[in-house]
Fold these 2 entries.
Entry 1:
Amino acid sequence: MRILFLGDVVGRTGRDAVVKRLPGLREQLRIDMAVVNAENASHGFGLSPEMARAFFAAGADVITLGNHAWDRKEIIPYIAETPRLLRPMNFPPGTPGAGSVVVVLRGGHRVLVMTVMGRLFMDALDCPFRATAVELSKHRIGVNCAAVIIDVHAEATSEKMAFGHSFDGQASLIVGTHTHCPSADHQILPGGTAFQSEVGMCGDYDSVIGMQKEVAAARFWRKMPGERLSPAEGECTLCGTFVEVDDITGLAKRIEPLRVGGRLSQTMPAV
Amino acid sequence: MRILFLGDVVGRTGRDAVVKRLPGLREQLRIDMAVVNAENASHGFGLSPEMARAFFAAGADVITLGNHAWDRKEIIPYIAETPRLLRPMNFPPGTPGAGSVVVVLRGGHRVLVMTVMGRLFMDALDCPFRATAVELSKHRIGVNCAAVIIDVHAEATSEKMAFGHSFDGQASLIVGTHTHCPSADHQILPGGTAFQSEVGMCGDYDSVIGMQKEVAAARFWRKMPGERLSPAEGECTLCGTFVEVDDITGLAKRIEPLRVGGRLSQTMPAV
Amino acid sequence: MRILFLGDVVGRTGRDAVVKRLPGLREQLRIDMAVVNAENASHGFGLSPEMARAFFAAGADVITLGNHAWDRKEIIPYIAETPRLLRPMNFPPGTPGAGSVVVVLRGGHRVLVMTVMGRLFMDALDCPFRATAVELSKHRIGVNCAAVIIDVHAEATSEKMAFGHSFDGQASLIVGTHTHCPSADHQILPGGTAFQSEVGMCGDYDSVIGMQKEVAAARFWRKMPGERLSPAEGECTLCGTFVEVDDITGLAKRIEPLRVGGRLSQTMPAV
Amino acid sequence: MRILFLGDVVGRTGRDAVVKRLPGLREQLRIDMAVVNAENASHGFGLSPEMARAFFAAGADVITLGNHAWDRKEIIPYIAETPRLLRPMNFPPGTPGAGSVVVVLRGGHRVLVMTVMGRLFMDALDCPFRATAVELSKHRIGVNCAAVIIDVHAEATSEKMAFGHSFDGQASLIVGTHTHCPSADHQILPGGTAFQSEVGMCGDYDSVIGMQKEVAAARFWRKMPGERLSPAEGECTLCGTFVEVDDITGLAKRIEPLRVGGRLSQTMPAV
Ligand SMILES: [Fe+2]
Ligand SMILES: [Fe+2]
Ligand SMILES: [Fe+2]
Ligand SMILES: [Fe+2]
Ligand SMILES: [Fe+2]
Ligand SMILES: [Fe+2]
Ligand SMILES: [Fe+2]
Ligand SMILES: [Fe+2]
């Protein structure tokens, strides 16, 4: 099985690039399963139902969100009826939506996708490690599901690496989101799980994490109310992670980053 | 001019790799100027004078430190007499050592190296942006110095990107340290400054930011005193950034990452 | 029923004062139930079993701990066999000890004591609000227990006040610990629960939260390793909260602060 | 000289109480100098020029602000022309307004008032300790000014106590603001400076730090966008600190808290 994970979509330039290029990427890389983190799609803050529909239509099997999940409030009723749109699993009980979903692919393969949010330098939440352990106790990779994909939406690399090792061997891919800067530490961990601490954003990299650089940088210099942050509008670099999964074990055979368009160095997984 | 910057050296595996490979890398890549961040060289915490001497002997022109600067107290008298060993410039007035140095290379070129520490999710310090602006007001790249290298030791990618744009055109290289995960966002910013939000560590990547994974991961699961953290001892991946600088302007012509040895995908700048 | 709650005991001066004065206070104020937070009893960091025994012998019915619970490791086996010694209830499952206990007083009255730790500006923990709601669902004040006492060990006054209102009417007393500065906001909330956002420490107030002032203050001026913090040794001010509880409802009839000895303004509940 | 300091005014109930009662308090307590922290006067967020004028008219000699300084943007031009309206002194250079002012009282006495903001659990700012030392180097209590009043707007009691001791003997009064819960640790420090770690708010204490309790408490239970916070509207408790200053030395002879109206226990300085 071949998996493509695209990181935080930021603003119009990110949305347009994902919608335009995802169909071709699916074909070119013979992707079986695509996941897109879209928490910043709407002007940098949240996701509208209409945008979610566009991503699904373009080939996203599952969409994940993070700390910006509720920035667009229209998403609340929509997520309640859209099982393939996920918010962090370790949000409090009673939160609308879910943090995991089992998707059945065309060939009948079952794939578990889940997302949790880290706590270091982030919001006060229930333990993402324990939440993940509970969820994984219900699914066995290579037994009752063909692949497991976990989006760990977190700030600190220490928490992400600790997470990766904690569930090494129980997932096909554990990939970080949230910092918007792609990491070059992709590897297959000793237990067989593909890991990358940060997939990076789909947005303009002549920016401050996707937002216009002058206004965003001024916030670090001054202690005054400034202009509203808005997304940078230059050409998007699509940042993603590609994983090839063993059909028997569900573990990873290969992980490669993908960076297409825009300012960053370009790379495509070998086909 | 050709610059090599190596990220946070962690523990024995990192030290040994730097000492063993830096001389060859200098030769192979025809490096004029090498900088090494060594804040985690001593069992993950700090740097001893003896280790610093070994790095200088192996070809480091300048060594930088970060939040772990003082973990080994012997460094305090040593830094006072070692101008090429830097601690963050925005530490309070009166702190031993300095945060910047002008190195004169064999050919007579003057190179300014400086390091500052970020504040987002880090210690309470004076403004790293203003400290940098003050320092840069005394040096003009392409006029009275041939190159400017800035190590921005920070947690948040937003602060690092804001920092890069704030001084774009005034430095040859602005490179982040501290998170220990190499980023793949290296680029030449519009004003001519080479930028990479994180160079990554020189350490074992089968770990939690260089430390043994079982003990480090347990800290995220439990709220109890655990075993002491100690560095992972597997093979080191040397993580670095290579920059080629224009001899006239001091701005960057090329930036490429370097990853040698260990678990991460290997890459070497083209010679 | 009459309850006395004494705040964080800091160092020798705090220990000596509690051991010396608690018996007399119990008698003078006709206390039925005394609780002591002792997380800083041992040189400012943690509690030894021997010290715990001394507090129990002096009249503490229950001892609570906070973020410093495990600073003295000998407490770990001891807490496992000492139900009246509590650590925060919202520590992860599997943590030694418990966060609540039902004490049966001489007259047969059952009193529930519990402690939780806040999350704002503190460690990543499970939700203290939900943990409390679960625990309180098993006990009904005025029905199957005569009083409920909750120690909310937290930094932010917003979290403490939110906690107080969330459980107003379900507890006799909700009192904050951890900041070491007694608050003057004691009141009976509309639902009948006595509330004080911070009881204050039992320690020397010519200090920085109980620790010697020169060394502790220097940490705010400098970014260098300094001398070890150690407790200030001047005369202790015992800081406590006194509550009189209605025998039928278990709700509060009166709340008064107590400050005895040392530098702070002196106050004793009317008898 | 007699000083009255009133803590963070929250919303309409706080504004109305200050405007209505300050004139009488000045007279009754024979106040020479009144300072009011008003950062939450406008619906809990910021201060409008019109409200500032009302406080000045009611007898405030100086008004201080804190982290909410700029929540109402109309205050920016107004502060630039209003020397007696202060924002934290350790905001970055170039910030409108000032952080200190020397007020000349009717009898000719000069009083220095200043305010700084803490950094622990707060924004990244320049060092409040060093900023204060620089300012105090220009003024000598008992020599060229009759009194010095410092508002330390901070979260952590450790930072506030460290601040108090650092400048003990150089100020008449050092009083904390920001947490909105009055402390009962008022004392005259060994060097002669009156100190109280937190003056408390002027607002409704049936609330979460002055805001309506249901909405504010829900934020600790849930991870969802909720209703807007708005100030509680019950009866205000005016919380203040009264200090009597020695006419020769400028140091404190007496410090007493003041709590008038509303739910908290009532106390008035002896006349
Ligand atoms: Fe994001
Ligand atoms: Fe995020
Ligand atoms: Fe480091
Ligand atoms: Fe660091
Ligand atoms: Fe404590
Ligand atoms: Fe504590
Ligand atoms: Fe306030
Ligand atoms: Fe404030």
Entry 2:
Amino acid sequence: MKNFVFQAPTKIAFGEGQISHLPKLLAEHGQKVLLVYGGGSVKRNGIYEAAIGLLAENKFIVTELAGVEPNPRIETVLKGRELCLENEIDVILAIGGGSTIDCSKAIAAARYYDGNPWDFTQDRSLVGEALPLVTILTMSATGSEMNGGAVITNLATQEKLGMGGPTLIPKASILDPTYTYSVPTIQTAAGSADIMSHLIENYFSRNTTAALQDRIAEGIMKTVIAYTPVALAEPTSYEARANLMWSSSLALNGLTGSGKEGTWTCHAIEHELSAFYDITHGIGLAIVIPRWMEHVLNEQTVSQFVAFAVNVFGIEATGDDFAVARAGIKALYETFASWGIPMTLPEVGIDESKLALMAEKAIEHSAITKHGFVSLEAKDVEAILKNCF
Amino acid sequence: MKNFVFQAPTKIAFGEGQISHLPKLLAEHGQKVLLVYGGGSVKRNGIYEAAIGLLAENKFIVTELAGVEPNPRIETVLKGRELCLENEIDVILAIGGGSTIDCSKAIAAARYYDGNPWDFTQDRSLVGEALPLVTILTMSATGSEMNGGAVITNLATQEKLGMGGPTLIPKASILDPTYTYSVPTIQTAAGSADIMSHLIENYFSRNTTAALQDRIAEGIMKTVIAYTPVALAEPTSYEARANLMWSSSLALNGLTGSGKEGTWTCHAIEHELSAFYDITHGIGLAIVIPRWMEHVLNEQTVSQFVAFAVNVFGIEATGDDFAVARAGIKALYETFASWGIPMTLPEVGIDESKLALMAEKAIEHSAITKHGFVSLEAKDVEAILKNCF
């Protein structure tokens, strides 16, 4: 196990009706609130109304920033910063999924930064003081509700890059599983694939002595695999939605990644797909992951794939390690496919024209050549992408 | 899954050499430090010297409270309070295992309480403001390094009772696995039994819909079962000590208990054994748990015991549920025994003379009749204790 510093201080109010905690959670930080949300879904499902009602009742002064994009853009961050400065905002309230929360984090840091907040994606040390952030989660996927990371998109340069820092960790997050009842089928599936991806990226690490983290990751993966079909078949299953929602947070709050080693590979690759084609992140990951697994399966890595197959999918350890490993990869592929996820790039509108360019960019924007689970060059990434056809 | 509020804000500095963070972690809270520790082991193994050196170098003003007992006593808490007031202490530094940390928590709260701090065990609402606490953990067992709970003993009344509150959660804990290299064999085994007990008490809950928590608990249990024999055979195995140490913290920081239901039974029973006979907590638990399991195994609970047997011990689900359940309980018993734990009460110096009295006290001091996994009366507790002979 590598040395690590772990801190996941977000106060989680979990369960149906926990929005009642909102006024108290916000008031700790001030009265002037920037309310950030995405499209109209929070208005359709009543969450916006419930929050606004509580804010009005408790005399908060609210400024709104609506229309955050699914891959939130730097322009929206700049708009948010302006609103914070003009309105002397004390605290940001994000209502939405990972995109809204990520955008809010970038705004929170941009409030105290004079330069272009895109700089944060180039140099994490620029993320300093930030406005406090409270979130109301409406989708189980990114884990952004309990960590300090964010991903921002710059369409002008076709870049989608990460940023983050401990000051961006939400102070509190309200997790009400009923708020995810209306998440459409494909978004539910994509969200679960995203949760799986975080666990898988942490799980396949160069060091294998952080057994506890791996056992916990396996436990969360088994939960996601068990409950995603339930949520898809019965969108208002509280048990399924609750287990998926809490899985989302615990998959990426440091619990399964601390003490492990190396950088994430599939996210580096997927971010290029989203940057060039604006596809849904979780779907891009589901397409890439099994092909990446096949590409990096070798004598050195096979034992980790055997553990994955046996412990997550209950595949029998027959002694033929490569066969067991491949059965595990196949089980994962079939799991994603069974959730209704389109499992090839053409199905999401991506042709072969930019594969080489995206492969190069993935290498340029990440450390996967040096620090990936298995070191990859641009030609490896291109091969992985070609296998997605 | 039941509604819950989860917050585990302790900053964890994990790994060899992380004591280097100590001055910075303390300085956030002030310069006047109450240094709390137990017997001489922290002096023998060099941790005391390392800490004192760093404190002197960084000009902290240190007051010492040595000699905290294995079951820390209310008199020591009172002594600590006096030292805090006399020396205008800003922050408490606990170096030790659960007893030292628990005692420090009670002192931290007592500092701001005019009455008898034993009151905290009777009414948790009395725990308010508290001195900040930083810990250096030297034993993997209680999880006190990452939660707000404490257990204090009153030998005069033969009571060992819990107290706690969010203000008592350590601000930071330094977890250096090498600090547990010198923990004696029997204490290592008792510590692992204690970790298992926390997981088991949370796992066997009346509600069975918090699947994620159960899968995580199974993962931690498997880790403890895998690494305890390694640590016993090879006390300086960093991998084993590291996995056990982090298991200790994660078993009882809210992760496996939030969203579950009911009160803990085996701890209520064991606290009476320790209160009357001052035995090692983890050993008392290892003796009681399998007998409690046998007592509460029935038509309603069998499916949970099957999950335990299959998921933790890899016992085959044959369809004969009671046989599978009993095989799981037997596997747990044999696991504890294989660690060298004395598995009967006579072996730890307890005869039958006070069984009925201890059973009555367990009922009086807890809510297990109303809120236990299976409701127990005094006669049930007595029967469980009789089976420990």
